[in-house]
Amino acid sequence: MSGSQIPRSNPDRVSSPTSSKSVTQTVNGSHQFVIQGYRLAKGMGVGKHIASDNFSVGGYQWGIFFYPDGKNPEDNSAYVSVFVALASEGTEVRALFELALVDQSGKGNHKVHSHFERSLDSGPYTLKYKGSMWGYKRFYRRTQLETSDFLKDDCLIINCTVGVVVSEVQCPRLHSIRVPDSELGSHFGFLLDSMEGSDVTFDIAGEKFQAHKLVLAARSPFFKSKFFTEPEENNREVTINNLEPKVFKALLQFMYKDSLPEDVEPVAAHTYDLLKLPEMYETLIVKLLAAADKYNLNRLRLLCESHICKGVSVKSVAKILALADRYKATELKDVCLKFTAENLAAVLETDAYQQLKDECLSLQSELLKAVAGYEEASNSTGGAKSQSVWAQLSDGGGDTSSRHVRQRTT
Q: Where is this region: Disordered (predicted)?
């Protein structure tokens, strides 16, 4: 029989050097939901829940829903219910889940419902749309819960782990070239330190600073306008009033190195609690925020806002809100309004809020809108509504014996 023959396939000998591999695995993430004031939440009604803040795992947003009176009317509030819900719009998500009620005695006898560490007959669970849930209507019998080590100081702790299923095709790359991180900032930083080729001198309260017009013009619309529209002879030496040398030095570092200087004050959760507003205005970071506003340095403004935001707390939020409004720090202002809305009763009692109320009347209407919007969102998800927002703002507080302070997130 004539003609060409088709060679037989030999799996041990592949003529082509190419290959690929499909890998399916989970991207895991966890969130801890602390429920303070459990006994006050009881009685809110079957099917009504307390929701955690949203958290991100695998590129999707998730939330934990706790039902103190249960989710199923047929159970007559005999059980608490716990669910994890998809909070992202759009697409189907396959995932594994674990919900654990934490044993607060330290014995480690947690109540765990988990997809992990066991075989799945039908594979991971599929959530098809925003609001889809996985969990248990009968998570734990309520009478047993209330006499257990899971409840301590009227507080429950729920740990949730989500494992989002992802697949990717891996292809070997025989050769690669590593590209180092950008050195632009370090190169311009050297230019700042050496001042080689500088063509403008700044006089700041008698202290001289040399710089490069092109660098400053590229970074700031203010300096671009000054150097390119005014006569050259006016821009060989520039005097700037009402600016301290240390602030201008920090300003130059940002424009050359794109970073905050090392001598900016570190900020933690309660850094601003004991400082009065005039004292806060004297800190380097706030003076930099003011300079960013004056010289149209939007990225510097955001860096300063992000840094100051770390100090938002019940005692400081009214002061930070005032300085954010003064320097057009819109992102920081939004954080302060949201934080105040979430912790209204506690914030209204602070001395800082009383001063804000008397001196910054224009912020009252914005605060009222923020609080009203927060309560409307809480009611739409079935959350319990506390004293009316209108009453709280008018009488300056409310019952503080049971107030709960939500933690700020970044």
A: 1-27
